[in-house]
Design goal:
Elements: E1 8-14, E2 28-35, E3 44-55, E4 63-68, H1 87-90, E5 95-99, E6 103-104, E7 109-113, E8 118-122, E9 126-132, E10 143-151
Antiparallel strand pairs: 1-10, 2-9, 3-7, 3-8, 3-10, 4-5, 4-9, 6-7
């Protein structure tokens, strides 16, 4: 009887560099992020299992995480400016996750989506960007996005 290999669960994180000016609804927070792991083979099928966003500034604003399976190279990603996704790249979006409910702690907070089953193909990484849906002011490294994925065995 052959062994059944178990899928690998990987956690990848990105901390976009933010400006210290206030963000408005619809503004890009940071720039395009690339989640990459040397443990994943090119063109590997994966499932995004969970996403957590930590907020060191405890701003608790609603944000959208826009996920692309490939580099949306036709779009210009400018921090703290209205995000205008190029029509060609719009067609490649694999998922948009809305985060609106935070767990507050003394001086920071976090929001999480769990039990997700978002299929994606890992070409050379998973690309994503954060879009503000409120008004918040941050220090340069106040936001971190952690993505847990299951790699097919």
């Amino acid at each position: 009887m052959a062994d059944n290999p178990k899928p690998t669960i990987l956690r990848m994180s990105q901390t976009p560099t933010l400006t210290t000016s206030a963000y408005a609804s619809g503004d890009l927070m940071g720039t395009l992020m690339k989640f990459k792991s040397g443990e994943i083979s090119k063109n590997q099928n994966c499932i995004i299992q969970s996403i957590m966003i930590s907020d060191l500034a405890k701003q608790d604003i609603e944000v959208d995480l826009v996920i692309f399976p490939t580099n949306p190279s036709n779009t210009t990603f400018t921090d703290n400016a209205a995000l205008d996704i190029n029509d060609t790249d719009l067609k490649t979006i694999s998922h948009i996750e809305k985060f609106s409910s935070y767990y507050d702690f003394s001086d920071n907070s976090a929001t999480v989506s769990q039990a997700m089953t978002i299929p994606t193909t890992y070409a050379d990484g998973i690309y994503a960007c954060l879009v503000s849906r409120g008004a918040g002011t941050y220090a340069a490294s106040d936001i971190t996005v952690v993505m847990s994925i299951i790699q097919d065995a």
